[in-house]
Amino acid sequence: MTNISPNSSSNTFNQFDIASWILIGIGMILVLIFHLLPALLGGLLVYELIRILTPYIERKFPGPRAKLIAIALLTIITVSILSMAGAGLVAFFRSESGSLTVLLAKMAQIIEDSRKLLPIWILDKLPSDAMAFKEEATIWLRTHATELQVVGKEAGRVTVHILVGMIVGGMIALRDAIKDDEYKPFARALAQRAWLFGDAFKRIVFAQVRIASINAFFTGIYLAVILPLLGVELPLVKTMIAITFVVGLIPVVGNLISNTIIVVVSLSQSLGVALGSLLYLIVIHKFEYFLNARIVGGQIRANAWELLIAMLLMEAIFGLAGIIAAPIYYAYIKSELREYDLV
After folding, report:
1. Which helix (H) or strand (E) holds 198?
2. Using one digit for the tens of pLDDT, what is the confidence trace for 99-151?
3. Residue 259 gets which letter from DSSP?
4. Any idea where the domains of the chain sit in the sequence?
5. Of 263, 285, 261, residue with least CA distance to 274
6. How far is CA 95 from CA 159, 188, 210, in A?
7. Which of 18, 43, 134, 250 could be disulfide-bonded to 165 (CB atoms 3.0-4.6 Å)?
8. What is the pLDDT of residues 47-59, one digit of tens each?
């Protein structure tokens, strides 16, 4: 595969580096303005997966023609598996057992039924009844429709963007695997920016997948093992575990979403179960906080407060897409600064 990684021993930059920084900076902003983040993430995911797997292919298929065929098949398989995984997740959330609509309706009913159990200061913050809950949820969804790209007709466009992005990522990975170019100065500077950006994506996203998996695992133990052993059976356990993993891919914010859902659903049993769930989740996320600092912070040499500031700033400017992009963008910017011994 083409080696375009920057030379860490050099801490000087030239006009080509400056021009490439300006160009990639504009590109990063345009990706968010024109809602192309799903395509970018899909392409980077496929590209980095193939780049990780290519060395194994090269050892098994040493000839150039055999390697070309093997990597082409690997690209097709990777895109197909990711597409089927995404389709399966969507199908699960639309099914009767995992329906988000059923979950929202259940939460609304639980809040209405639990009003007699909750303190007044909490009741003042909650909708008056299930109908009010549904109305507020509808208003929120309508207000944030531009940010929630998976709602309504936007879902089709986002799906196409992701598929196209994955195909393009596979094509670029295939090209890099079989062709070693001698870059001219400006092209090489751009290639270095792209390499650092892809590396930042790999470090952040793969680390966050590990954290989300650990979070979902411990949440699953609590919901599917500990509570049943105590004689407590919560509804929609599979849905809550799946949501915990999916939203856990978003640092910090994802935990708030999943915790709120679990605590509200726990109210269907009793206030004590809800408080127990809250206590367990706090303990788990305290552990996850240190894990996050060790895994994600260690990957980009950043403290949790740095990521939080970046996420708050990006959310204020670009909304939900900004929250998702912030850790990757911040990791890339810090990589660039560290490359030239500026931080």
Report:
1. helix 185-221
2. 566 666 666 666 666 655 555 555 555 555 555 555 655 565 555 545 544 44
3. H
4. 15-133+144-339
5. 263
6. 19, 49, 26
7. 43
8. 888 888 877 777 7
